[in-house]
Amino acid sequence: MPRATTRGRPRSPTGGYAPEQTRQALIDSALELFGSRGYAVTSVQEITEAAGVTKGAFYHHFESKEDLLALIHDQFLDLQLAMLREALLRDEDPAARLRELLRALLATTARYQANVTVFYLERRHLTGERFEAMRRKRDEFDRLFLQVIERGIDEGKFRGDLDARIAGLGILGMCAWVHQWYRPGGRYTAEEIADIFSEMALAGLLAERS
Amino acid sequence: MPRATTRGRPRSPTGGYAPEQTRQALIDSALELFGSRGYAVTSVQEITEAAGVTKGAFYHHFESKEDLLALIHDQFLDLQLAMLREALLRDEDPAARLRELLRALLATTARYQANVTVFYLERRHLTGERFEAMRRKRDEFDRLFLQVIERGIDEGKFRGDLDARIAGLGILGMCAWVHQWYRPGGRYTAEEIADIFSEMALAGLLAERS
Amino acid sequence: MPRATTRGRPRSPTGGYAPEQTRQALIDSALELFGSRGYAVTSVQEITEAAGVTKGAFYHHFESKEDLLALIHDQFLDLQLAMLREALLRDEDPAARLRELLRALLATTARYQANVTVFYLERRHLTGERFEAMRRKRDEFDRLFLQVIERGIDEGKFRGDLDARIAGLGILGMCAWVHQWYRPGGRYTAEEIADIFSEMALAGLLAERS
Amino acid sequence: MPRATTRGRPRSPTGGYAPEQTRQALIDSALELFGSRGYAVTSVQEITEAAGVTKGAFYHHFESKEDLLALIHDQFLDLQLAMLREALLRDEDPAARLRELLRALLATTARYQANVTVFYLERRHLTGERFEAMRRKRDEFDRLFLQVIERGIDEGKFRGDLDARIAGLGILGMCAWVHQWYRPGGRYTAEEIADIFSEMALAGLLAERS
DNA sequence: AATGAATGAGTATTCATTCAT
DNA sequence: AATGAATGAATACTCATTCAT
Predict the structure, then answer these.
(1) Is the CB of B22 under 7 A from strand F?
(2) Protein CB footprint (7 Å) on chain F nucleotides
(3) N or C end of chain C, less CB within 10 A?
């Protein structure tokens, strides 16, 4: 989700229109504003002002404010799912897989902070089919994530006496919560946090405990 | 456009006004609406309609909509802090203390679901001094929570090589996230979830590991 | 439908509010504007400016612009129906009854010109249940009007070989069309026009023709 | 927001553009929409979508939305005038002439229903010179129509004691109103309705009455 | 001949809040 | 303690029209 570089310049160097830049500038501005102040209190006016285009241009590119919110969710969830699927493909043992997964997850959290915030705090403002579409993708994400635990149990590497779903949701919560307190440039990098969390989670999960 | 007004709530049995009931009805309605739909998209009109009173009554009891949001936060955080302080008072060993804490935390989550949701999703809409007041209480909560870990390390019961803050925030995240998926009447009670989480957390924290 | 006398004075002489005057001023202004320029091109802004109140006051009294249009239709149709029913009550012979009816109809047209214009030109802008409610009243009006012809035929006073419905709709058309060209203060009064129409209609309807 | 564009209409079989077809498709779409929903609430967007072309094409063919409304009026009034002039040319006696006229008038009403509706309900939305041009043609139509009555009186065939203008406007109203209730495929054809109306009108007009 | 990106003024409606009673 | 009329500013969205290509 690269930040806009062309604030307010919807015209291409050749003098003609640059619709793709206009569109991206609007997405970038909206993402930042939704993330920092919230979807409901961000006006279309503010978005277009931040993007340097007129309100008309907004509605040329998007059906509605909610439409743009849905787009932002969709792009983000596609990214998350791609990342998750990639981590699952590598043929490693369950512990290594989990470690990779948390690293990827927290790397995303660190890199796409606004997206993560919008996803956690603003998804409730999607309605109807837009909400359902988001929910389906999110459920797919959860399902794939929990599979990592389940497979570890099936392979006899993780303890079978802990409910996989509860344990998985606990680990997911650890990671999700990071966006509330993580600040780039802080004492630990996202990777280091992921490794601490992995260690904690695996201590609880690994079967070879006394 | 006359509104349907008295669902009868605010009048006392004796026929006079019942200010405390009116006030509480407003708080209850607001809490439910803020929790289910969000603070920003809930109008004072909706709150008063749900409470069965007029808009005038609202402004008789509260300075503004944000004032009511602040009140809701304040009451909830006071409750959380009291619960946390009580759990810390009992002179137990760190592991037992953590277990008690998680039980209390998740009991609150289950019992005050709307409050928890409002706290996590809507606190950003507090401004100025109201935001600061909330932040101070929340920081105090985090501080006390992390102390449990720190004291466990100081007493030599918890591993000293894991950063207490990161580990604590991880555990906090596990618990905070519960409000996203917990449904009363589900397979596990809040207490059972707390115990699973405790076991996982303690496995990661307890020093006596190989 | 008396015209507003208090343009722009929503406050009563005693200094308090005068909601009924505000409401009536809005209805009057809307009626005039809908009649002269059309419902669709009349903005709520224009209505409130003409009435001397703010937009907020408009929405305090009416749900929507269409709601006000519906109200105007309703009041007018109630008036028309009352007039029609009264004319039907008098126990006269069919010819006299028809004459009375046309007089009453054209008197209304002359007196409530804006209402008539709005009814004929703007009723299509009612939607859903509001349209159906208008349609029901209008159908009732047509039904009662056509009954006058049918009863004349049944009583053997009007020719039985002309289709009552077509003849009645023809007479109705004569009268309805008047609003297109009638100007108060013109050569003929509404009553005189009604009498000319009656004579023409009765010539066509009366059975005692060679 | 790319619109669904080419429903294929505007391209000629040879693959090039077919401007006359585009133009006609726009006129047809506009006529139908203006007739069914009204000029003011029909957007250029809707017209072009219904015609399967883009907005640019619209403004290539017409100066403005009002320009197209004027064109529709102009074409319709030319048609009506031609029809009226033809009916007047035939050297018949006044009664036969009136009968022919009503037949022609109602045949038009039945055949060009949308045009008739637009003419009666939407002409008020023409402004300035466009309105004047429409008014001139309409006045010419009325003048010619009333002449039929006047000539009947002059020739001593119609009663001289009824005001020719009022009687004529009555008859015109009968016919104009037909568009409000006529449905093709109903019990009577337009011609039959015309004959009933002629009979009624002539009964009132013919001098040889007792 | 036709496109589609963009504008800018306008629309209906909502809303937190005030205040005289 | 509570009402309800009223405000005024803001909101999402629409629309006729322009213009470079």
Answers:
(1) yes
(2) 1-21
(3) C
Instruction: For residue D118, count other CB atoms closer than 10 A to its CB.
Output: 25
For the whole model, what pTM was predicted? 0.88
Name B residues 65-84 whose Cβ lies under 7 Å from strand E: 65-66
Residues ≥6 apart with Cβ < 8 Å to A106:
A175, A178, A182, A190, A191, A193, A194, A197
The predicted-structure confidence for C154-194, as pLDDT tens digits, reads as follows: 988 898 888 999 999 999 999 999 999 999 999 999 999 99
Mean pLDDT of C122-140: 97
Asked whether B72 and B118 are in contact (CB, 8 A), the reply is yes
The answer to whether D2 faces chain A, any CB pair under 8 Å, is no
Q: How far apart are CA B189 and CA D33, in angstroms?
A: 61
At how many degrees (to 10) do helices D65-89 and D19-37 cross?
A: 90
Which burial class, exposed, middle or buried, applies to A83 when counting CB atoms under 10 A from its CB (0-12, 13-18, 19+)? middle
Q: Is D125 an 8 Å CB contact of chain C? A: yes
Q: Report residue A87's pLDDT band, with 50, 70 and 90 as the boundaries.
A: confident
- Which residue pairs, CB below 8 angstroms and at least 24 apart, start in B184-187? B184/B110, B184/B113
Residue C23, chain B, CB below 8 Å: the answer is no
pLDDT digits (tens, 9 = 90+) for D90-100: 878 889 999 99
Is it the case that residue D2 has pLDDT exceeding 60? Answer: no
Separation between Cα atoms, residue A204 and residue A32, nearest integer Å: 37
Confidence class for position B16, pLDDT limits 50, 70, 90: low
Q: What is the pLDDT of residue C182?
A: 96
pLDDT over 60 (residue A86): yes
In this structure, the dihedral spanned by the alpha carbons of residues A176, A182, A185 and A188, taken in order and rounded to 10 degrees, is -70
Q: Does B41 contact chain C (CB < 8 Å)?
A: no
Subset of residues 59-118 in chain B with CB less than 7 angstroms from any atom in strand F: 59-61
Residue nearest to nucleotide F1 (CA to C1'): B17
Nearest to B177 among A37, A163, A177 (CB): A177
Residues 33-52 of D with CB under 7 A from strand F: 41-45
pLDDT digits (tens, 9 = 90+) for B145-170: 999 999 999 988 898 888 999 999 99
